[in-house]
Amino acid sequence: MSRDRFRRVFILGSTGSIGTSALDVVRDFDRRGARRFVVAGLAAARNGTLLAEQAQEFRGDHGTPALAIADGNGLADPPPESLSGRIYRGADAACEMLAEEARPGDLVLAAMVGAAGIRPVLAAIACGCDIALANKEALVAAGAVVMPAAARAGVRIIPVDSEHNALFQCLKASTSMEEVRRVVLTASGGPFRLKSREEMSRARIEDALAHPTWRMGAKVTIDSASLMNKALELVEAHWLFGLGAERIDAIIHPQSVVHGFVEYLDGSVLAQLSPPDMRTPIQQALCDPERFDGPSRKLDFAALRSLDFEPVDHARFPAISLAHRVIAAGGDSGAVLNAANEVAVAAFLGGRIGFLEIAELVRETLDATPVSRVSSLDDVLAADRSARARAESLVHA
Questions:
Q1: What are the residues facing 66 on neighbouring strands?
Q2: 287-346, pLDDT tens digit by residue?
Q3: Quick one: CA dihedral 256, 257, 262, 267, positive or negative?
Q4: Domain termination site, one of 128, 160, 192
Q5: Which of 317, 295, 372, 369 is CA-nearest to residue 25?
Q6: Which of 78, 119, 204, 302 is the most buried if burial means most Cβ atoms within 10 Å?
């Protein structure tokens, strides 16, 4: 993107934590009189009040951004007069908005939560848009569909998750992935980093939600406590960078300052460091390959006393081994992993299973599900439905 041009951006999941942080980045550019983006469209699941406020704030010379809301009752009908843009409603609202409003070369920040975010990513690719990807399921469950579609369309997929964005930045030092020995994603270790397996077996919901570093939604926080979030990220890294299980690993780093390492064949290791502030990787993804000042916190080297690292204890955190298993198996196993984990986390939050049973339920679901080939999104969604049903049956067993 030339420094003297604006770029149209669509933010899917604009009322969530990633979406609001992205708008904070856009807002900072505008505040400093260094406008870089035109917000062309916003999509949300149900928070129509906040969605309307965002649309009014980011209306520009061409009017109010187009809006998409999955829950049609979440936004007043008729909408406020100040919302003069196009409004799309219903389960397919985000896809319909992109099909009607997006243009080749636009940027779509995909931050919708869960499997519902897969179709909009494919819709954006079909429109010729680059993707700033913050939806894990798009690659964990549907990487075999999404990555070939992006390659055929000639669009870029730029990761937004702090760990993948770190690897994305460090890999710019290579001329070929053959130069890379391995990549390593860091994990904070969550609230149970120093707890024994016995203590983890007695963990209450409030214990698992007490993350020491990040403030996130309940599902993501539980995933962080079990390291299932890191397992999903390992699978995502496999699709993003084309690496096998033997070249992707995770390490515990409680300070959450180093977000990822790339080890090269010659022994050189490159790392990306920044404070735990999601606005940093979001801005990098939105602006790549350029860099600008931004609103995120900056690293204070004077206050940086130590950086600690420790290996993952696979006995206490078996999710990492499940990720390597899924990467090696291929097919629809990623969709099964993701679906079974969503069922297991919901069961834990509902008080139906214990904390350590989350990973066990996922493993049992994988054991009971033969791996099938994936050639379309329908294959992915069928695997998702089947895995959810199987996992639910195991909860009640």
A1: 41
A2: 999 999 999 999 998 888 899 999 999 999 999 999 999 999 999 999 999 999 999 999
A3: negative
A4: 160
A5: 295
A6: 119
| Interatomic CA distance for residues 324 and 317, integer angstroms | 13
CB 179 within 8 A of CB 186: no
Question: For the chain, how far is it from start to end, CA to CA, in angstroms?
Answer: 55
pLDDT of 35 reads 87
| Contact in structure between 206 and 225 (CB atoms under 8 Å) | no
Residues 175 and 111: their CA atoms lie apart, in Å, by 30
Lookup: tokens for 74:
């979440």
Whole-angstrom distance, CA of residue 218 vs CA of residue 376: 31
Check which CATH number belongs to the domain holding 70 and give it. 3.40.50.720
CA distance 97 to 106: 13
Does residue 369 carry a pLDDT above 70? yes
Q: Does residue 289 have a cis peptide bond before it, meaning omega lies within 30 degrees of 0?
A: yes
Asked if 276 and 214 count as a contact pair (C-beta separation under 8 A), the reply is: yes
Within-domain flag for 183? yes
Mean pLDDT on 171-187: 96
Q: Are residues 83 and 132 in the same domain?
A: yes
CA contacts within 13 A on the Cβ side of 76 = 10
Can you spell out the DSSP letters for 52-108?
HHHHHHT-BTTBSPEEEESSGGGS-SSPPTT--S-EEESTTHHHHHHHHH--TT-EE
249 with 155, same domain?
A: no
My answer on whether 152 and 206 are in the same domain is: no
280 vs 108: CA distance, rounded Å: 17
pLDDT band per the 50, 70, 90 thresholds, residue 165 = very high
**Six-digit token string for 41:** 């469209």
Mean pLDDT, to the nearest integer, of 155-166?
97
Residues in a beta bridge with 117: none
- Tokens encoding 208: 């698992």
Same domain? For 321 and 220 the reply is: yes
Which structural domain range is residue 87 located in? Answer: 7-160
Residue type, 252: I
Number of domains the chain contains: 2
Same domain, 193 and 314: yes
CA angle 37, 173, 334 (to 5 degrees): 75
For the whole model, what pTM was predicted? 0.92
CA distance 357 to 339: 15
Cα separations (Å) of 210 from 221, 225, 306, 345?
8, 9, 23, 15
